[in-house]
Amino acid sequence: MQEIPRGANVSLTALSEDAGAVVVSLGWSSASGAGDADVSVLLLDENGKVRDENDFYFYNNPAAADGSVQLLGKVPTDNGDEDRISVDLTAVPEGVSRIVVAASRYAGARFGDLDDLRMTVADRSGDPLVGYSIEDAGVETAFIFGELYRRGEEWKFRAVGQGYETGLAGLATDFGIPVLEDSEDAEVEAAEELAGKGKAADTLAPAEAPQGPGTAAGGTDAPDSGSVPADATAHVAADAAAPVAVPAQTRGRGPRTTRKKVTLPKVAKKSLAENESWNQARLFPVPSLKSDREREVRATSVLLSVMAQVPEFGRRLTAGFGAPAGRMQTFTEVSLPHGDAPRRPDGVIRVERAGKLWTALVETKTNGNPLKAEQVQAYMDIAARRGYEAVITLSNDVALEGRPMVEVKVDGRRKHKVSLWHLSWAEVAHQAQLLIRHEGVGNAAHAWLLQELLEYLRHEQSGCHGFQNMGAAWVPVRKGIEDETLGLGDARTVEVVESWERLIRQVCLRLGGELGQKALPVQRARRGSDPQARRVAAADRLCADGKLSAELRVDGTSSVIAVSADLRTSKVRTSVDVPAPEGAYPLVMVKRLLRLLAEAPADLHVESLVESGPGSGPRGTLERLRPEPGDLLPTDGSVVVGFRLSLLKGMGSTRGNTESGFIRSVDDAVERFYHGVVAQLGPVEGRGGRRG
């Protein structure tokens, strides 16, 4: 990969023969784990202005109808997370001469608070072509990271690195997007609307209008919005002639939509069955499945058929693999020559655009069966010889950054490159749920198809339940910790740490699909750090204190949820720290917190965090503190800087995903904690309206 400085440019076609479509990645890390920003893309004409509202892509308008631009969302990396954008340069309209890639922060946050600001451009096969790092970010609340631009018949990339202290509003104005200032009264009115006509008084924040994104033209409702910072509060121009509008800053405003999309209601209609023993007829029945082979064949056919029939879903799953936007057809049990005996991949995906074909072979596993390296290697060889672009593996396992699911050899002498990608069944279900519950699809039939797919994946006989086994090392490691016989450097502890990391990523997928927001693991590592060294360090901590620990954050919130599994006490702890507002009276602050937690579980542990450090402040269960809120205040007059809210849950004893299993207990603990505690903290954590 070529590294370039600010202001430099490079030809993409000179770097790769496969640069007709690229994936742009914007990344950053945060020492606190709470840092975040929103990505936006603008298509500009030769005058440097947007042509109309369809030239502005952000959280609420994430994809172009022609497939030229699609915001793929955030994905976890070993150093934090990245926002990825798929750009099909062959589909960009002739009238577009520049594609600007930008990001903005919200609620007054600055880019100087983030580390490792970086932009990377990769070709269709996923190979990084060019990278650029921003080293001097400070008070800026919006940044143009870089741009793709035409020069004759080729596309080039320029590292821009231009910051705006006026946030997204200032950036948008430069490119012809109208922004009008809101009055202070409008901000207060929006805050009251957000607070639900009276709940605002119960928030822990000081009495001022909350700031965040809201109204947007184009797309569907979404929580992880592009935003205009506090110093440039804006709203969409009311003039119907305005070509496009920036999302409003105020959190209380509900986003507008210009496209009607279908979402399914969260509450199912009342059943007409006489009793519970009646099973509703399903498009994809599963009770007759007897063997793993039958499950693999059925699951592959069901998934590929829905991908071909629901364009939004098929595009969502393949865009990140370098597939163009176009007419998709899918096939199963295709026979392809390979040596003495033909090979039969489980499926084939073909996408046609402008007379060119993109082809991927699909290898599927269900019911926890592992992928076989020799099978995948054979498909990689076949794809290379036949000029196919990708091999996609699909199983219940979850991929880790920097750790391939299977080891394959690539013949460097071959001119044609084949990419190897992996999908988890949990990720398939996550994307389907996002579309039908939150973002919407083109018509009701497509929504129904996705719902039938979800019902199939969730059925106990489908074998498509996601990561469901902690591996062979789990039982001996857990027993070694209980007996205090586990020594440092035991390779089995690294295997357990990797399984724990996969579990946390799946927990994030399930929680994010339910909420309609990205939920991501938090990594507090500097860019370039060795992920394997980090896992070895975590394994040493497991040996020392018997705990597996992780952090996750729901996109659009500042709270970091900590999850800890104590193998010695067999308890799963979920917790979140709530900062104390400056200038508030201690007792008033505690009472407000307890009012916010009125519906929280009575066994919630609340601890005061004081300046002298964690573990030194008063604590108690919510049940005990409700009648005596003053018990949470230090008797020695120490300053309270925040509160730690924690729930404890018994840990499952088995390694699998049974009712008593460890995986199920962690999943249930996070879900109970988010809905029972974090969601009770109120709208101070939200950013914009719900999608859909």
Layout of helices and strands:
Elements: E1 2-3, E2 9-11, H1 12-15, E3 21-29, E4 38-44, E5 56-57, E6 69-77, E7 80-88, E8 98-104, E9 115-122, E10 128-134, E11 142-151, E12 154-164, H2 167-174, E13 180-181, H3 184-194, E14 234-235, H4 292-309, H5 311-318, E15 327-332, E16 347-353, E17 356-364, H6 373-386, E18 390-395, E19 419-424, H7 425-439, H8 444-458, H9 474-483, H10 491-515, E20 519-521, H11 531-545, E21 547-554, E22 561-566, E23 571-579, H12 586-596, E24 605-610, E25 619-621, H13 622-625, E26 640-650, H14 662-676
Parallel strand pairs: 1-10, 17-18, 18-19
Antiparallel strand pairs: 2-12, 3-7, 3-9, 4-5, 4-8, 6-7, 8-11, 9-10, 11-12, 13-14, 15-16, 16-17, 20-21, 21-22, 22-23, 23-26, 24-25, 24-26
Helix pairs in contact: 4-5, 4-8, 5-7, 7-8, 7-10, 10-11
Describe the structure.
There is one protein chain. With 692 residues, the protein is of the alpha+beta class. Helix content is 25%, strand content 24%. It is built from 14 helices and 26 strands. It has helices at 12-15, 167-174, 184-194, 292-309, 311-318, 373-386, 425-439, 444-458, 474-483, 491-515, 531-545, 586-596, 622-625, 662-676, and strands spanning 2-3, 9-11, 21-29, 38-44, 56-57, 69-77, 80-88, 98-104, 115-122, 128-134, 142-151, 154-164, 180-181, 234-235, 327-332, 347-353, 356-364, 390-395, 419-424, 519-521, 547-554, 561-566, 571-579, 605-610, 619-621, 640-650. Strands 20-21-22-23-26-24-25 form a seven-stranded antiparallel beta sheet. A six-stranded mixed beta sheet has the order 1-10-9-3-7-6, with no helix packed on it. The chain has a six-stranded antiparallel beta sheet with strand order 2-12-11-8-4-5. A hairpin with a 2-residue loop joins strand 11 and strand 12 (154-164). Helix 4 (292-309) packs across helix 5, helix 5 (311-318) crosses helix 7 and helix 10 crosses helix 11. The two termini are 39 Å apart. Residues 181-259 and 683-692 have low confidence and may be disordered.
